[in-house]
Amino acid sequence: MMPFPSTIRLVVAQTKYQLLTFWRIPVAMFFTVGLPLVMLVLFNALFGDSTIDTPDGSWSSRQFYTAGLAAFTAVSATYTNLANMVPLRRDEGVLKRWRGTPLPTWTYLCGFILSAVIIAFVGVTLLLTLGVVAYDLDIDLAKMPAAFVTFGIGVGAFAALGMALASLVKSASSAAAAANATILPLAFVSNVFIQLDDPPRWIEIVGDIFPLKPFVEAFQDCFTPFVEAPAFNWASLAFVAVWGAAGLGVALWKFTWEPSGSAPRRSRSRRAETV
Amino acid sequence: MLAIEVRDLRKHYGDLYAVDGVTFDVRQGEVYALLGENGAGKSTIVEILEGHRSATSGQAQVLGIDPAAAKRDFRDRIGIVLQSSGIEREFTVREVIELYGGCYRERRSAEELVALVGLQDKLNARIGSLSGGQQRRVDLALGIVGKPEVLFLDEPTTGFDPAARRKSWDLIEQMGTDGTSVLLTTHYLDEAERLADRVGVLAKGQLIAEGTPEDLISQVSGTTVSFMVPDTTELSEAPGVFGPLLGTEVRISGRLIEASVEHPAEAVNRLTSWALDAEVELESLSVRRASLEDVYLSLTATDNEEAE
User: Fold this and answer.
1) Out of A5, A9, A100, whose CB is closest to B80?
2) Cβ separation A4–B72 shorter than 8 A
3) Same topology for domains B2-212 and B221-289, yes or no?
4) Which residues from chain B sit within 8 angstroms of residue A4, using beta carbons?
5) Chain A touched by B81 (CB under 8 Å)
6) Which residues of B touch A92 (CB under 8 A)?
7) Rounded to an integer, what distance in angstroms lies between the CA atom of residue A41 and that of residue A135?
8) How far apart are CA B136 and CA B171, in angstroms?
9) Sign of the C-alpha dihedral, residues A170, A172, A176, A177?
């Protein structure tokens, strides 16, 4: 009897197919990768060479919004993307179909998450490249290790939170709404699009409670000239990581493979503990 | 060796007894059909055997393994065609076959499978562009891509056109002769009669009859006589008139009267003599061998009466 295909081969195949899915859904491509690029062009047209003055000196605001948009791209590719796609596959019964095959179920989820991380990486790289090539974005190589680590912790945490949301919300349509309803308002109070100058206290508190602002700020630190290399913002990163761990816990606890309403009453299918 | 062994299986959801003490076996290489109306418990039994659901009590074994505790090796040896489960719409037929096939130890090629299910010209078509019946055939292909020893088919031909249904029947029959054991659920009686080596009839979570289609048919009196009630006879009087003539109880639906008779020659002789004497025509008179449908109707009718 032939052996099972190796785990690495299975994970690679799953990741490849999830990337192919993404490639073939134009609307997902546009919102995740295209829209931030469009916004970068718009912001540069609107704010151009404006500068931000602080007691530490003044610098071009594009260092801020380019890094903010890059961080937001990473969040869209992981949190929003997974919270949309996983419930969709569950509603379609695709998750249940995979459950009946010899594919180890964690391999399937691994493909989802790895593909999201790759999309995030490509999206962020495209955005930064456009910034450098077209708009004189300043990149300090000494801070790039911090940028990589920040990216890594951020995508890990937001992928876990996306899976948590996908586990809590039962239908695909409400999951898509919940993903946008949570992330978009939060983006406005988290320095993604606009640098808030002396915001109302409650807005500051909301921004500080959730992990988006710490992630965005930690990523911005790697691109703004007033933070010295190596620019690791460990406090913020630890905060983001704790949120990610909580998300992972919820996902493991609440994840289901079956479409909601597929069985009468309280027959929730076996959960992720058997993954 | 038994492919599937089910003993006093029960699945309760609160006070709803979806499966209420079911016992049956499927032998190796056998095609076994579970027949029943929607809600009779067919899908619940199949889902327990696939490992998708756990039983409240009783034993279920597939290939000697308890599906509730089964792992990867088990799922490598079974194939599942669920009643409704989607396929990634963005992929082509070839891509899904290769993707799903890629996780089994042994697999069939995409070319072989599309030939088996009759989708040769759709190999490179996206799933989303296929009709419902064509997607169902991809379902079937994905069920057998891993060369299963036991194949679960939950209403596999629902939504098929007649030609596609015949084609699928041929395929399922071939699976049976290849040594694959098949557990089929269906509410199409012709499908069960054509495909199944043995049939189990389910009603309200219980197995109310079991046997080969021929056995079940011969349990019901052998021959069905039917005709339209002549205009000269009031519909309300028809059972009183024709019951004694045919020597048994009659069933009426619309103006069609039907009876299962033990001795067709005698019964028809009495009936036609009566008609000649009364100078009436018996429209649509037919005498035919009982079918599984007659068995099913008589079984579920008795069951309903008992319940009332």
Assistant:
1) A100
2) yes
3) no
4) 72, 76, 103, 105
5) no
6) 85-86, 89
7) 9
8) 14
9) negative
B197 touches chain A (CB under 8 A): no
DSSP A80: I
Q: Which of B50, B76, B91 lies closest to A102 in CB terms?
A: B76
Q: Do A10 and B82 touch (CB under 8 A)?
A: no
Measure the CA–CA gap between A100 and A251, rounded to whole angstroms. Answer: 21
Residue B70 touches partner A, C-beta closer than 8 Å: no
β-pair partners for B199: B33, B211
Asked if residue A241 lies in contact with residue A157, where contact means CB atoms within 8 angstroms, the answer is yes
User: What does the block give as tokens for A273?
Assistant: 């503990």
Which runs of E-coded beta strand occur in chain A? 51-54, 57-60
| CB-nearest partner of A25 from B16, B51, B90 | B90
Q: Going residue by residue through chain A, which has 275 residues, state the pLDDT in tens, using 9 for 90 and above.
A: 789 999 999 999 999 999 999 999 999 899 999 999 999 999 888 887 788 776 666 777 888 889 999 999 999 999 999 999 999 999 999 999 999 999 998 899 999 999 999 999 999 999 999 999 988 888 889 999 999 999 999 999 999 999 999 999 988 889 989 999 999 999 988 888 877 777 888 988 998 999 999 999 999 989 887 787 788 889 999 999 999 999 999 998 989 888 876 544 333 333 333 33
Residue A213, both tokens: 């602002």
Question: Which strands sit side by side in the sheet containing B150-154, from one edge to the other?
Answer: B78-81, B150-154, B181-186, B31-35, B198-203, B206-211
Is the separation of the CB atoms in A112 and A85 below 8 Å?
yes
Residue of A10, A264, A265 with shortest CB distance to B103: A10
> Does CATH place domain B2-212 in 3.40.50.300?
yes
CA distances from A39 to A33, A44, A127, A158 (A): 11, 8, 10, 22
- Residue whose pair of structure tokens reads 């876990």 in the numeric block: A160
Locate the domains of chain B by residue range: 2-212, 221-289
Task: Provide φ and ψ at B36, rounded to 5°.
Answer: 170, 160
Q: Which of A17, A29, A101 to substitute to test the interface with B, most B CBs within 10 Å?
A: A101
In this structure, which CATH number among 1.10.20, 1.20.120, 3.40.50, 3.30.70 belongs to the domain B221-289?
Answer: 3.30.70
Interchain contact B82–A (C-beta under 8 A) = yes
CB spacing of B53 vs A269 below 8 angstroms: yes
C-beta neighbour count of A57 within 10 angstroms = 10
CB contact under 8 A, B87 and A94: yes
Interchain contact, B52 vs A3, CB within 8 Å: no
d(CA B110, CA B129): 18
Contact A4 B106 (CB under 8 A): no
N residues, chain A? 275
DSSP single-letter state for residue A56: T
Q: Searching chain A, which residue's CA lies closest to the CA of residue B80?
A: A100
